[in-house]
């Protein structure tokens, strides 16, 4: 019995289903590896902005750095000290700049390098 054009079966084949399942799993795995890095960055932005706002104009760079590191320690965010710059503007308000890279291992010897930059005024 021959099927006419109107009687064809429509749907997804087993191979098509496997392809989309594998693709979905890879996307979920990628997001799971990347999201903690961005969550830390968003927390860092908040901490840096708060520290810059709350720092007194007469505070020294060491005092500001100490308070910032204390807040980062509570949030369990590790940023190398060389990546944190503290300066003061014309009104003696601190400007905290954090500029760092994060390497996220993906699969085997493949990694993703993400560059972050935030300024707190």
Task: Fill in the keyword field for this structure.
121 residues, three-stranded antiparallel β-sheet, 2 helices
Largest sheet: 3 strands, antiparallel
The low-confidence parts are: none
Task: Determine the oligomeric state from the structure.
Answer: single chain
By secondary-structure content and strand pairing, the structural class works out as alpha+beta
> How many helical elements?
2
The pLDDT mean sits at 88
What is the total number of structural domains? 1
- Widest sheet: strand ordering: 1-2-3
Q: Assign a percent range to the helix content.
A: 40-55%
Order of helices and strands: HHEEE
N-C termini distance: 77 Å
Number of strands: 3
Strand content: 15-25%
Overall 3D shape: elongated
Alpha carbon gyration radius: 25 Å
Pfam family, one: DUF4845
Protein name: DUF4845 domain-containing protein
Transmembrane segments: 12-35
Keywords: Membrane, Transmembrane, Transmembrane helix
Summarize, please.
It comes from Acidithiobacillus sulfuriphilus. With 121 residues, the protein is an alpha+beta fold.
